[in-house]
Specification:
Blueprint lengths: L3 H22 L6 H14 L3 E5 L2 H11 L7 E5 L5 H8 L3 E5 L10 H7 L4 E4 L11 H11 L2 E5 L7 E3 L5 E3 L6 E5 L13 E5 L2 H11 L3 E3 L2 E2 L10 H12 L1 H19 L5 E2 L14 E5 L4 H10 L23 E2 L4 H9 E4 L7 H14 L1
Parallel strand pairs: 2-3, 2-4, 3-14, 4-5, 5-8
Antiparallel strand pairs: 1-9, 6-7, 8-9, 10-11, 12-13, 13-15
The structure holds pyridoxal-5'-phosphate.
């Protein structure tokens, strides 16, 4: 699905120097490399505070802890997402309220969330799935109406631009109270191991986040609140800081692949190509088709015989996972989520795809139909 080796080969000299410098300095935990990366990422996102942490799941957990939620408080999430989004909610004794998603863009909307709000609702976690920002203007309006905290799970859409109706643009993850991301190696901005970060423009929240991610510590050996140990290590920050320089080009490369796929699949009756939201750019963490003739699994098997990777994100929605049995509240029939779980198929998309490979993949997919 990705070609991390090919990507590394192109920037090997810079990456190797950055890693070696880090080893020479022996500043493995904390220090200037991490600070520089956080600053550069903040500049790219136009966000005041970037707090790196150990992974995207921790980022969500720390965000929920910083939001001051109490056990029993409800947090609205889409049911069509990766487990991490809701896992941390349940872990903290909060109640995940699982909702359906928009059939075209697979994200939460203001109207979907409105149906899920109760007097116990305290927060919303919109997930910017597959590369597009959820419709944040409406979501922020609704959050203001019900005084809800908004934590954007931006593990998949770093760099996506959202345009408000007054023309103002903001990057995904910097619109709500707190945004989170993951630097898992296969993510659009991937480390060479685990990593994550939180974003906020609120100074008070940024202080809380920093404290919680560092054992609830205000100064050395003085602990104000119960926290966690969640740090991005310096070697990962060194790698990420090099890759950040190429990030805009990486997004363009993914978009070019998506455009080619769109052209090739646009007139195949049994395929629905990814719908682009008019308010959001798409950074194509995944290129996800809907296969409407009930043959998604057969196509996947067929592609495997041709040496082509594909993946189903996600085959089972949150509301059907054993782990959440009795732990959340469900809203509605989840008919869209159910259909998506049966229909979606993601094809390889990454920064190193050449024309021959693309041609081979599209020819094989078309030959199946
Ligand atoms: C939507 C979403 N949220 C959270 C995460 C968790 O990130 P991590 O694997 O870095 O903990 C992921 C990563 O797969 C994700 O896709």
């Amino acid at each position: 699905m990705v070609d991390l080796r090919g990507q590394y080969d192109k920037i090997k000299s810079e990456i190797d120097v950055a890693i070696q410098e880090c080893i020479n300095s022996t500043r493995f935990i904390g220090g200037p490399v991490i600070e520089r990366f956080a600053e550069n990422l903040g500049e790219y996102l136009n966000c005041k505070y970037v707090i790196p942490c150990a992974n995207g799941t921790d980022a969500l957990q720390v965000a929920l802890m910083a939001a001051g939620l109490k056990p029993g408080d409800e947090v609205i999430v889409p049911s069509f997402t990766y487990v991490a989004t809701a896992e941390v909610i349940a872990l903290l004794g909060l109640v995940p309220v699982m909702t359906d998603v928009d059939p075209e863009h697979f994200n939460l909307t203001k109207d979907i969330i409105r149906q899920a709000v109760s007097i116990n609702t305290k927060a919303i976690v919109p997930v910017h799935l597959f590369g597009q920002t959820a419709p944040m203007e409406g979501i922020m309006e609704l959050a203001a109406e019900y005084e809800l905290t908004v934590i954007e799970d931006n593990a998949q859409s770093l760099g996506s631009d959202y345009t408000f109706s007054d023309g103002k643009k903001q990057k995904a993850g910097t619109i709500g109270n707190i945004g989170t991301t993951s630097f898992f190696p296969a993510k659009n901005l991937g480390a060479y191991g685990d990593g994550g970060a939180l974003f906020t423009n609120d100074e008070e929240l940024s202080k809380k986040i920093k404290m919680i991610a560092n054992h609830g510590q205000s100064k050395l050996y003085h602990h104000e609140v119960i926290g966690v140990n969640s740090r991005l290590d310096a070697l990962q920050a060194a790698v990420l800081d090099v890759k950040l320089k190429y990030y805009a080009a990486y997004i363009k490369a993914r978009q070019a692949v998506a455009n080619y796929y769109d052209q090739q699949f646009g007139d195949v009756d049994e395929i629905i190509i990814p719908q682009r939201h008019e308010k959001s750019t798409h950074v194509f963490h995944q290129y996800t088709l809907k296969i409407t003739n009930g043959k998604r699994n057969e196509l996947k098997e067929f592609l495997k015989t041709k040496g082509i990777a594909s993946a189903v994100y996600y085959p089972v929605p949150l509301n059907e996972q054993n782990a959440f049995r009795g732990k959340g509240r469900l809203v509605g029939e989840m008919s869209v989520t159910k259909e998506l779980c049966d229909q979606v198929l993601s094809l390889p998309i990454h920064t190193e795809m050449d024309h021959t490979t693309l041609r081979y993949i599209t020819d094989q997919v078309k030959s199946f139909f």
